[in-house]
Amino acid sequence: MGRRPGLHELVSSHLIKIPFENVSKLLRPADAPKNAIPPIEEFLRGIGDQDLGGTCHALNVHFAALLQFLDYDVELLAADAGGVPRAHAVCRVSFEDQLHLVDVGHGAPFYHPIPLDSLPLQIPHGDVSYTLDRHASHREAVEVVTLRKSTRVHSYVAKPPPVTLTASAPPSSAPTRPTPR
C-alpha cells in the first residue's frame, strides 16, 4: 500500500470542511428511522450537495469507517453526556504507538488527534476552554469538559468497551469495529 494520509491532516481537514450540525436530521426522509445514522451515500450527498455535515454519531461513525479503510486501528467509544448514557460517540485511534482521542463531532477545536498520554490537557478557544483528563469511572475513560469563562457548561465521559454504530441501528455495545461502506 502507498503512503496513507496523515492522521493529523485528516482530522483537521474534516473539522474545517465538514460541519457539526443537526439540520441534516430534520432534512432526512420522513420514513427514515428517527435516530439512525444516515447511510454513507446520503451522508456524502448532504456534504457535497447541501454543505451539511452531521451529528456526533454520524460524523464519528463515518470518520471511523474512513480511518479503518485507510488501515488505521480505530475504535468507536460511546460517551455519556449530561447524565444521558451513550449520548455521544468518539473515536479512539492507535497511531504512532499511542492511543489518541479523535472527536470530529463535538463542534470543538480538536484539530489534531489528542494523545491520551498527554492528559490532563486544556485547550483554550476564546472565552471557551476544553479540559480533557482521565475519569475515575474507568482507567481508560476520558472526560471532556467545556468551560465558558471558567464555568462548566457541558461535559462527556467516553469509555470502553468499543461500540458498533451503523447506518441502520443506534449504538450497541460490542467488541467490533465499523465496516467501511
Beta content:
35-45%
Q: How many beta-strand elements?
A: 9
Shape: globular
Secondary-structure-derived class: alpha+beta
Please tell me how large the radius of gyration is. 16 Å
Percent helix: 10-25%
Low-confidence stretches: 172-181
Question: In whole angstroms, how far apart are the ends?
Answer: 20 Å
Sheet of most strands: 9 strands, antiparallel
Task: List strands and helices in order, with pairings.
Layout: H1 7-17, H2 23-27, H3 40-50, H4 56-69, E1 73-81, E2 84-95, E3 98-102, E4 114-115, E5 121-125, E6 128-134, E7 142-148, E8 151-166, E9 169-173
Antiparallel strand pairs: 1-2, 1-8, 2-3, 3-4, 5-6, 6-7, 7-8, 8-9
Distinctive features:
single chain, 181 residues, alpha+beta, nine-stranded antiparallel beta sheet, 38% strand, disordered C terminus
Structure report:
- The protein is α+β, with helices and mostly antiparallel strands.
- Helices cover 23% and strands 38% of the residues.
- The chain has 4 helices and 9 strands.
- Strands 1, 2, 3, 4, 5, 6, 7, 8 and 9 form a 9-stranded antiparallel β-sheet that branches.
- Strand 5 (121-125) and strand 6 form a beta hairpin.
- The longest helix is centred in the middle third of the chain and has 14 residues, at 56-69.
- The model is unreliable at 172-181 (pLDDT under 50).
